[in-house]
C-alpha cells in the first residue's frame, strides 16, 4: 500500500459570512491569534507526515500563495535588525511543505473541488483538509485516520457527535460499530438533512482520507443538494461498494475550532490564546474580570 504523502486543501470559497473583511482578503488568511487559519491546517497535514500540499483556489486568492512563498525584502530587513525570532516565524511558514496550487474554476461544490486534484494526486491515496476546521495539535486526528486507512485499506472520514438540533448543518452518517471503540463502519450518508430527519448525530467534519477511486466516482456524480457536486454523494457510493473497501469513520472527541462561523471564530481565538505561554498568563485574569462584569 502506498504511504500517504499528499494533502488537498479546498480554498476557493468566497467567505461571504465574513464580509466586508473578506472583500479583498481570502477568508483562509483571517488571523487566528497571530497565524492565518490556513497555516494551522497546513501544519496539521505536515504533522501527520504529509509533505506535498495542493490548494484548490479561486480568484483573488493570491495571498495564500504569497503567504507560503519567500519574502526576500522582509527577510532581509529582519535579518539586518537582528530580529531572529520573527525571521524564524517567516521562514517557518515558507518551508512547511512542498506547496502547489490549482484553480477550481466554476464553483460547483466540494466534490468538484476534490476532482480538480486528480491530475496532481494520480493513483495515490490522499487526505483532504477543509480550512474551516482547526484541530488542536494536542488531539491528533489525521494521523489516526491514516492509521485506520492503512489497516483496513478503506476510505476514512472524521466524525463528531453533535447536538441533534445541529444535524441539519452537516453531512450525517449512519454507522455500525466495529471492534475499535473510535472506529465505525459507515452504511449511509445524507447531506444536511432537514431538521428532525437525521439518521444519527454523527456529523462529518472537515477531514477525509480518500482512495484514488473517488475520482472515478466523482466524475459520474450528478449535482445534488444546492445543485453542487457533493462529496457526500460520492462517499455514499463508495460505502455501498465493498470492492473499494467501503468507508469507515473515526469518531473524534478532541478539541476542534470552527473558524467558518463568526461567533465560533471569536471563540477559537480566545480558546487558543488563553493556552499560549506568551499570552495566557495575562489574558486569563483579564477574561475573568471581564466575564465577572457582564450582566
From TrEMBL:
Any idea which GO molecular function terms this record carries? Answer: UTP:glucose-1-phosphate uridylyltransferase activity
Identify which top EC class this enzyme belongs to.
transferase
Name the chain's protein: UTP--glucose-1-phosphate uridylyltransferase
Q: Which residues form the Nucleotidyl transferase domain?
A: 6-272
Q: What is its EC number?
A: 2.7.7.9
Q: Which GO terms describe its biological process?
A: UDP-alpha-D-glucose metabolic process
Provide the family line. Belongs to the UDPGP type 2 family.
Q: Which SUPFAM superfamilies match?
A: Nucleotide-diphospho-sugar transferases (SSF53448)
Q: Which Pfam families match?
A: NTP_transferase (PF00483)
Amino acid at each position: 500500500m502506498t504511504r500517504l504523502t499528499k494533502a488537498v486543501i479546498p480554498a476557493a470559497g468566497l467567505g461571504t459570512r465574513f464580509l466586508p473583511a473578506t472583500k479583498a482578503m481570502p477568508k483562509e488568511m483571517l488571523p487566528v491569534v497571530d497565524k492565518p487559519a490556513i497555516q494551522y491546517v497546513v501544519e496539521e497535514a505536515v504533522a501527520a507526515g504529509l509533505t506535498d500540499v495542493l490548494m484548490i483556489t479561486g480568484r483573488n486568492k493570491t495571498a495564500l500563495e504569497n503567504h507560503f512563498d519567500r519574502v526576500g525584502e522582509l527577510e532581509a530587513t529582519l535579518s539586518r535588525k537582528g530580529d531572529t525570532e520573527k525571521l524564524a516565524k517567516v521562514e517557518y511558514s515558507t518551508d512547511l511543505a512542498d506547496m502547489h496550487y490549482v484553480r477550481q474554476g466554476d464553483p460547483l461544490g466540494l466534490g468538484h473541488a476534490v476532482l480538480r486534484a486528480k491530475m496532481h494526486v494520480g493513483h495515490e491515496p490522499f487526505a483532504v483538509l477543509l480550512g474551516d476546521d482547526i484541530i488542536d495539535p494536542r488531539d491528533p486526528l489525521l494521523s489516526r485516520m491514516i492509521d485506520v486507512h492503512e489497516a483496513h485499506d478503506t476510505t476514512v472520514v472524521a466524525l463528531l457527535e453533535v447536538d441533534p438540533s445541529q444535524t441539519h448543518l452537516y453531512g450525517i452518517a449512519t454507522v455500525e460499530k466495529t471492534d475499535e471503540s473510535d472506529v465505525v463502519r459507515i452504511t449511509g450518508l445524507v447531506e444536511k438533512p432537514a431538521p428532525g430527519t437525521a439518521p444519527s448525530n454523527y456529523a462529518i467534519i472537515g477531514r477525509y482520507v480518500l482512495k484514488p477511486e473517488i475520482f472515478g466516482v466523482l466524475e459520474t456524480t450528478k449535482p445534488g443538494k444546492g445543485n453542487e457536486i457533493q462529496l457526500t454523494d460520492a462517499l455514499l457510493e463508495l460505502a455501498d461498494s465493498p470492492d473499494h473497501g467501503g468507508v469507515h469513520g473515526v469518531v473524534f472527541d478532541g478539541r476542534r475550532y470552527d473558524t467558518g462561523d463568526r461567533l465560533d471564530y471569536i471563540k477559537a481565538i480566545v480558546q487558543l490564546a488563553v493556552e499560549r505561554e506568551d499570552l495566557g498568563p495575562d489574558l486569563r485574569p483579564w477574561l475573568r474580570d471581564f466575564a465577572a462584569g457582564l450582566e
